[in-house]
């Protein structure tokens, strides 16, 4: 299970780093800014989680493999767009770029939500479902919130289609199924629920109630 979680973390790191780097590229940041935003998006939620759980230093610093992967991913994306600037043209961007960013963000959300829950359940001996779900959602959305604030945008979770709610649903699924069907099943099902709800919300433009 440890290997499975590590693989998920690496995939989530690459996905969220891609999301952060692509946001920075859209904002015309230089290569340093692209790497900073990519790394912040990738490890920001995990750092918040570790601080609340009392893990010092946070895993992002004690295990630099996560920051390394985020920097490599961000640099690669910067190089691709730098050498192919036509990618940012409106027609190509709307057809490919935005969809890739959506899928990266969705994958990162689902992965880090369940990883956050599993991390909390291993560190905290007390069985506290609410706390585990809270930590999972924080891990899933934290990096994206930091990304949006640093990019000068209203955080995605507050204005766009159902986002944090998908993580909450996935977190509940992970905890409930994990206690009855086992840790692995809970992780897979929680991840699946988060990704499916978020994907459907983006496709059909589902939103929570708001004042128009």
Describe it for me?
There is one protein chain. The protein is 81% helix and 0% strand. It has 212 residues and is mostly helical. It has one domain. Helix 1 packs across helix 2 and helix 5 packs across helix 8. The longest helix is centred in the middle third of the chain and has 34 residues. The radius of gyration is 17 Å and the shape is globular. One of its GO terms (cellular component) is plasma membrane. InterPro entries: Gly_transporter. It holds the Pfam family Gly_transporter. It is a multi-pass membrane protein.
Give the fraction of residues assigned to helices.
Answer: over 70%
Task: Give the mean pLDDT.
Answer: 92
> What structural category arises from helix and sheet content?
mainly alpha
Oligomer classification: single chain
In DSSP terms (H or I, runs of 4 or more residues), the helix count works out at 9
Number of strands: 0
SSE series:
HHHHHHHHH
> Total domains, how many?
1
Largest sheet: none
**Measured on Cα atoms, how large is the radius of gyration?**
17 Å
Poorly predicted ranges: none
Jot down its keywords.
212 residues, mainly alpha
Gist?
It comes from Candidatus Blautia merdigallinarum. Residues 7-80, 102-177 form the Glycine transporter domain. This protein is mainly α and 212 residues long.
